[in-house]
Design goal:
Elements: H1 5-32, H2 37-83
Length: 84
């Protein structure tokens, strides 16, 4: 299946986001570890929650694009049926 440019960009951003989440979580943990384990864990969890929300937004863009494509196909079929 051919992907258009929008889907390619969103897929790339999703992959990059997962990398940012993993490396960012490790960095946040080690940066705040000097202030205590519990604070480092809390800040890391907050970071992961916020970044996962952003990943969900990117995924929602992709799902809405696919839904729009399917609605266009259905509309086209309904128009063909109406013409008969």
């Amino acid at each position: 299946m051919q992907k258009d440019t929008f889907e390619r960009v969103i897929s790339f951003l999703l992959g990059a986001s997962w990398g940012i989440i993993l490396f960012g979580a490790l960095a946040m943990f080690f940066i705040f570890f000097s202030f205590g384990f519990s604070l480092a864990l809390l800040v890391t969890l907050l970071y992961v929650i916020v970044t996962l929300f952003l990943v969900l937004l990117l995924d929602a863009f992709l799902v809405n694009k696919q839904r729009l494509k399917e609605l266009k196909k259905q509309t086209e079929l309904l128009e063909k049926i109406l013409q008969k």
